[in-house]
Structure formats: C-alpha cells, structure tokens
Amino acid sequence: MNPSTWRPPTDHARINQFAIACFRDTADADYIAARAAMRARLAGPFLWSALHSIEKYLKCILMLNRQSTIGLKHKIAEALDRINASLPFAIRLDPAEQEFVDRLVEWNGDRYLLQSYHLFDSELLRLDRLVWKLRQYCQPLDVVHYADPPSPQVLASNIKRIEAGMSGPAQAGHVPAGKLEQILADRKHASRDALVWANAWYCVKPRTKVWFTRGFQGVNSPLWLYPELAGQVALWMEIPKSVLEGARQLVDRRKRTGEKP
C-alpha cells in the first residue's frame, strides 16, 4: 500500500475485510484444494471443496453488499437467488456454469456416499470459469478508496466494468491483492502448481487452450446397491429422511419392475 494514500479504516472498511478474510480467502483455499483433488482423480473431495468454494464466494458477495448470509449453510442455489433478488445487480450464469452449480446442488454435500454420483474431468473447466466470474464481485465495489463512504454510483460503474470484461482476457478479471493472485505471482508457493495446472483463468500468460486427460469417475452408493438395508444401517449412522424415503421407493420400484442394480 502507498503510505500517502493511507487513511484510518472506517467500520464499513473493516466489515469488508471480515467478508474478504472469512469468505473470499478461505474460498480461494477451497478452490485450490478442489483442483488438487481433481488432478489426483479424487471425485468426492473435488465436489466437497468445489461446493465450499462456491458457497463462500457467494456469501462474500452478500456480506460485502450488506445482505445476511445467516442460515444459508451450503445452499448455493438459494445464495445465488438471494444475490439476484436483493442486490442492485445480477450474476448471470451461462449454461455450462449453471449446469455445474446444479451438479453441486444435486450432490448436496454428500460426504458419506449416501447417493451415487459421477463426474467428468471436464467439469474442472466449469469450476475454473465460475470461480473467475464470482471472484470479480468479491471485492468492495461501492468505494474507490477503502475508507470512502459507500456510493451507489461507484458500485454501478464497477458492475458495468465487470460485465463488459466477461469475454476476457482472463487476467483482466483478476482481483487486486487476492490470495490466488498472490500465489500465482509466487513461483515458489507450494500451492501454485495445483492452481495453474490446466487452468486457462489463473495463469501467468494468456492461454487459449488447456490440455488434460478426458476421463470419467463414477461411484455407486451402497444404498443404491442394497436399498433394503437402509433402515438397519440408519441404526448406526445418520441418514437424512429424504434419502431413506428414496431408498424405500427404490425397493418398491425394483419389486414392481424387476429392475436390477
């Protein structure tokens, strides 16, 4: 920071820093963890870390614009709806980005393989693009200097700038002083390799292509294979009522149709 521009931070600026430190910075770590998991072909950890990163970026946007994040938990669809309904701007997802959000919503933070899932390696590209888009809104957009009072005019100008730059180049959408940008600039950082691997959005030189192995990962839940055991299993592990009901319906359908796992 240039010492000549220093001014005592206002409460508004300090609250913004809470949002950035608690949500954006931790989301950046989750995003890198998701990329490392995909590179290691660990589908479950990829989905888990991806869900947390998107959740926190959305909460950061809400808090920076003084909207509550209380009660949202991992409900990223609800968080996005809250942004678009309550803020003076909307975050529009393209079909591929929306499909990735829908995938995370459907997966629903399933840490214990209570539901079957599948994952294409190419979904990493969708995560990269979505993170790049959301992070541009994860900064104080209603001020020029951090200690300025919030201004609707400044906010409108910055939103217009972001929207105009959505077609690239990628580097134009990087966030000043962001954790990802700091890691990108530090060639010795332990996380840098996971960040830049096959990444068209966070890289030093502009990339028009990225190369990675086209693959597919799929895992069947034991409750898909043996849904008739759901009630017994629920004696020793917590299973949501909706999952138990789904298992019951699956048993009924298989009895009725002769369907096999």
Give structural notes:
The chain is mainly alpha-helical and 261 residues long. Helix content is 53%, strand content 3%. It contains eleven helices and two strands. A two-stranded antiparallel ribbon has the order 1-2. Helix 1 (11-39) packs antiparallel against helix 2 (43-64). The radius of gyration is 21 Å and the shape is globular.
- State the share of residues found in helices, binned by percent: 40-55%
| Biggest sheet record | 2 strands, antiparallel
> Over all CA atoms, what is the radius of gyration?
21 Å
Runs in which pLDDT lies below 50 for 5 or more consecutive residues are none
Compact overview of the structure:
The chain is mainly alpha-helical. The chain has helices at 11-39, 43-64, 76-86, 95-107, 123-135, 152-164, 179-185, 192-196, 222-225, 230-233, 241-257, and strands spanning 117-120, 216-219.
Please outline the helices and strands:
Elements: H1 11-39, H2 43-64, H3 76-86, H4 95-107, E1 117-120, H5 123-135, H6 152-164, H7 179-185, H8 192-196, E2 216-219, H9 222-225, H10 230-233, H11 241-257
Antiparallel strand pairs: 1-2
Helix pairs in contact: 1-2, 2-3, 2-5
Based on the model shown, name its key terms.
11 helices; 261 residues; single chain
